[in-house]
Design brief:
GO molecular function, one term: receptor tyrosine kinase binding
InterPro entries: Kringle, Kringle-like, Kringle_CS, Kringle_sf, Pan_app, Serine_protease_kringle
Keywords: Disulfide bond, Kringle, Repeat, Secreted, Signal
GO cellular component, one term: extracellular space
Strand order of the largest sheet: 1-7-4-5-3
Shape: globular
Subcellular location: Secreted
CATH architecture of one domain: Beta Barrel
């Protein structure tokens, strides 16, 4: 009896310790060792033949374990993570800008390099900076750290302090940032004036095109990697937003927020803005020639025309007004988005130009009466009748979005799939028309904001007009519009649920 009671106490103590350990991990956040590295997808750092013996092979390690081993090893500066023919972690004592190895393409391998060795800016005071600047701000060449001439000093190079050759370093955490002794007998030491990461690259407008290397928020929290789902789950996975440069854990702006931001490694703080310098002089937009006024391309983010009512004829609300709908899209905050008057625009990367409406009961609506530019989407194939028997290999929508595979449920859960339509040839992510939609072949898309769309396929010669041709009227289509606050739907003109094509459209979106 006493033994059983003792066992129960031991078990309770064990469970309590486990819960405390788990709580401690959640309370302090989980920092991935991959945060120390900059990833180059599909690249491999291949050492020269006479240095290949310095590469350490560690088979079977997980990616995180490989990164952890490299982080703890002062000699390791990068690693190749190979997935085929077998999982192998290859630790390297160099990074890409050295003469000991070459970067080569390898679809079965990703290269991870320690940020401290490859970035050209400093974090904080730059105590961990391991770059190769070797000249001071006034142009003096740095003295070798192992040398005591022309200036004697107390520092001894080691793997811990990184005092390598004559590179600028900050071993004492000086507020001036990385520095060095100079080769000028009259000038003992001087700062190297290496920019801080938040100042190295400035942002214009709301920073959607920011591609700098800030990886901490404005309060100093470290950013979570975009390719990871912990501690915060999110939709902004790099493979789904290839044009947003969601690299490593750098601050970015994939959702058209006022400034670049990131998810944090603190479980209690989901996301925060990043502190990045605004450009003093806003440069002229390089792609100004892409502005359109009578039609739109892609998602219509460069549309600058003067249409100011929705598809169903409802007048738009002015962008500088907060009535009848309050919203965050202030013209001064989004100065590059053309938020003038009450014209239809697309400041948030939605599927097409839109606006807040002047009707209190309807928050937003699309402006689909604006024609798509004739040169925007080039049909890649053709189909007969309604395309139900189309078996081609086009996998792109009329908006240029890549199709989602029929057999997966991300980013959209599918009601039409190979299981529910076994005879429809729903292979890979090819455009198909399993439900006989009158508008032709379609697919679910890889854009989380666009559930499905019709494909860049026209009807074969001699048959009726294709959906990808510019049209003057929107007859019977159900559109869904996602805003930052709510979901709602608008039915344009006649929507007859007795017609099979309308039932099919509803089924695709349910």
């Amino acid at each position: 009896m006493a033994q059983n009671k003792s066992d129960q106490i031991s078990m309770k103590s064990f469970l309590l310790c486990a819960l405390l350990a788990l709580y401690g991990r959640l309370a302090t956040g989980y920092r991935s060792p991959l945060n120390d590295f900059q990833r180059s997808e599909g690249r491999e750092l291949v050492p020269n033949l006479w240095h290949i013996d310095r590469m350490q092979l560690l088979p079977g390690l997980s990616l995180e374990e490989c990164a952890k081993r490299c982080s703890e090893n002062l000699e390791c500066r990068a690693f190749n993570y190979e997935t085929r023919p077998s999982i192998t972690c290859k630790q390297l004592p160099w990074v890409r800008d050295e003469n000991t190895a070459d970067v080569k393409r390898n679809v079965n391998c990703d290269l991870y390099e320690k940020k401290d060795y490859v970035r050209r800016c400093i974090v904080g005071e730059g105590k961990t900076y391991r770059g190769k600047v070797s000249q001071t701000q006034s142009g003096h060449t740095c003295q070798q750290w192992w040398s005591k001439f022309p200036h004697d000093h107390r520092w001894t190079p080691s793997a811990e302090n990184g005092l390598e050759l004559n590179y600028c370093r900050n071993p004492d955490g000086d507020g001036i940032g990385p520095w060095c002794y100079t080769t000028d007998p009259e000038r003992r030491f001087e700062t190297c004036n290496i920019p801080r990461c938040e100042d190295e690259v400035c942002i214009t407008c709301n920073g959607e095109d920011y591609r700098g290397q800030v990886d901490h928020t404005e309060t100093g929290l470290e950013c979570q990697r975009w390719d990871q789902q912990y501690p915060h789950q999110h939709i902004y996975q790099p493979e789904k937003y290839p044009d947003k440069s969601l690299d490593d854990n750098y601050c970015r702006n994939p959702d058209a927020s006022p400034v670049p931001w990131c998810y944090t490694t603190d479980p209690a703080v989901e996301r925060q803005n990043c502190k990045i310098r605004q450009c003093e002089k806003v440069p002229q937009r390089l792609a100004r020639h892409s502005y359109t006024t009578h039609c739109f391309r892609g998602r219509g983010e460069d549309y600058r025309g003067k249409v100011n009512e929705t598809t169903s004829g409802i007048p738009c609300q002015r962008w500088d007004a907060q009535q009848p709908h309050q919203h965050p899209f202030y013209p001064k905050t989004y100065e590059c988005k053309g938020l003038e008057e009450n014209y239809c625009r697309n400041p948030d990367g939605s599927e097409a130009p839109w606006c807040f409406t002047s009707v209190p009961e309807m928050r937003t609506a699309l402006c689909l009466q604006i024609k798509r530019c004739a040169d925007d989407i080039e049909a890649e194939d053709c189909y007969h009748e309604n395309g139900k028997n189309y078996r081609g290999v086009v996998r792109k929508t009329r908006k240029g979005i890549i199709c989602q595979k029929w057999s997966v449920n991300t980013p959209h859960r599918t009601k039409i799939n190979p299981t529910t339509y076994p005879d429809a040839n729903l292979t890979e992510n090819y455009c198909r028309n399993p439900d006989g939609d009158q508008h032709g072949p379609w697919c679910y898309t890889t854009d989380p904001k666009t559930e499905f769309d019709y494909c860049a396929i026209k009807q074969c010669a001699g048959e009726r007009i294709s959906i990808i041709e510019p049209i003057s009227e929107c007859e019977c289509i159900l559109f869904f519009k996602a805003t930052h606050e709510i979901w709602f739907f608008v039915v344009f003109l006649h929507f007859d649920m007795t017609r099979p094509e309308h039932t099919a459209a509803t089924e695709k979106m349910s």
